[in-house]
């Protein structure tokens, strides 16, 4: 019989997804192919007998529900929490101990945490694969994979696109991850943000080091965005401000309205990781360029692929899977 200590020292099974930089171009494209397989057949029993833990130390609607739906649609069961106040973290239990315990129960752990670096730490101490569902203002790699899938589906390719990132580029972890993932594809970036929410210097340095071209402006108007292939809107992240007066000054700074889309390319699509507050006016929702609700739906197929990949299930196994439910 193995002791707890022996179990603690056991080698991890499966693959973590903590940061988007850890994925090569080949791995990204492999996961996108797997996502397309799941979009074709989202209901299967390929994860029958598996347990997926979803540990959400921060609020979420889409990420948690799409991971949980992905697990259920593939035949797995779910354990976890969406409010850390109902866990022993309130009694002082450390993240290390929480992860050790959940590693005893689940085959894969999906975690969202308010601290930057929490997912990296969890991956270092966990015996089960960790999927980072967002760590502070740092990274949100599963969102990036669904963003890439959405761009690929709507544009037909990822190469050389004009990508406009708008709003909170300082605290918005989704734009940081997306920028990094697109480094392989020669895209041109337009960063549109007020001064206090500009793209952080470290990401601009990343662009320079990776020969990624970018421009920066605080102007957001019809002519500024006319050349976009993708407009990636973001919410001003109130929860990350230390000075709420500063938040009040910028919270409604940009609003994308339908009238601003008159000169847009026919194929241009508007993405948003959601939730939105005021940054996309409701009159855009029925416009041909709006794609944010379909984008969230793509999250289901993407997360089916990510859970399977984390458990060592290959694209070939997914293609040959005989557990599809029509
Ligand atoms: N896009 C996203 O992360 O949404 P939630 O915060 O609702 O999970």
Q: How would you describe what is shown here?
A:
The strands form two sheets. This protein has a five-stranded parallel β-sheet, covered by helices on one side. Strands 2-1-3-4 form a four-stranded parallel β-sheet, with helices on both faces. The mean pLDDT is 94. Helix 2 packs across helix 10, helix 4 (95-105) packs across helix 5 (118-125) and helix 6 packs across helix 10. The radius of gyration is 20 Å and the shape is globular. It has helices at residues 4-8, 25-40, 62-73, 95-105, 118-125, 141-155, 173-181, 201-209, 244-250, 292-310, 315-319; strands at 51-56, 77-81, 108-113, 130-135, 162-166, 188-192, 213-217, 230-233, 269-271. Helix 5 (118-125) links the parallel strand 3 (108-113) and strand 4 (130-135). 43% of the residues are buried. By secondary structure, the protein is an alpha/beta fold. The longest helix is centred in the C-terminal third of the chain and has 19 residues, at 292-310. The site of phosphoric acid mono(formamide)ester has 9 residues, from helix 3. Phosphoric acid mono(formamide)ester (CP) binds at residues 60-63, 134, 143, 273-275.
């Amino acid at each position: 019989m193995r002791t707890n200590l022996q179990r603690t020292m056991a080698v991890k099974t499966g693959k973590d997804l903590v940061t988007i930089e850890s994925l090569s171009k080949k791995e990204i494209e492999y996961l996108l192919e797997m996502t397309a397989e799941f979009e074709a057949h989202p209901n299967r029993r390929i994860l029958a007998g598996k347990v997926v833990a979803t540990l959400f130390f921060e609020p979420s609607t889409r990420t948690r529900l799409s991971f949980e739906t992905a697990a259920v649609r593939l035949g797995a069961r779910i354990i976890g929490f969406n409010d850390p106040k109902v866990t022993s973290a309130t009694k002082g239990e450390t993240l290390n101990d929480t992860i050790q315990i959940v590693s005893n129960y689940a085959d894969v752990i999906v975690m969202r945490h308010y601290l930057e670096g929490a997912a990296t730490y969890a991956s270092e101490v966990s015996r089960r694969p960790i999927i980072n569902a967002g760590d502070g203002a740092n990274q949100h790699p599963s969102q990036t994979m669904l963003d890439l899938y959405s761009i690929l589906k709507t544009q037909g390719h990822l190469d050389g696109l004009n990508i406009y990132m708008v709003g909170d580029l300082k605290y918005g972890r989704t734009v940081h991850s997306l920028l990094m993932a697109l480094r392989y594809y020669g895209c041109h970036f337009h960063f549109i943000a007020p001064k206090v929410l500009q793209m952080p210097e470290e990401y601009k340095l990343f662009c320079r080091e990776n020969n990624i071209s970018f421009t920066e402006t605080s102007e957001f108007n019809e002519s500024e965005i006319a050349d976009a292939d993708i407009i990636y809107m973001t919410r001003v992240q109130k929860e990350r401000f230390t000075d709420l007066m500063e938040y009040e000054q910028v919270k409604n700074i940009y609003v994308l309205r339908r009238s601003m889309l008159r000169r847009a390319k026919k194929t241009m699509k508007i993405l948003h990781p959601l939730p939105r507050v005021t940054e996309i006016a409701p009159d855009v929702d029925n416009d041909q360029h709006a794609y944010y609700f379909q984008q969230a739906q793509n999250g289901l197929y993407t997360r089916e692929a990510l859970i399977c990949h984390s458990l060592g299930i290959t694209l070939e196994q997914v293609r040959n899977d005989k557990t599809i439910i029509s």
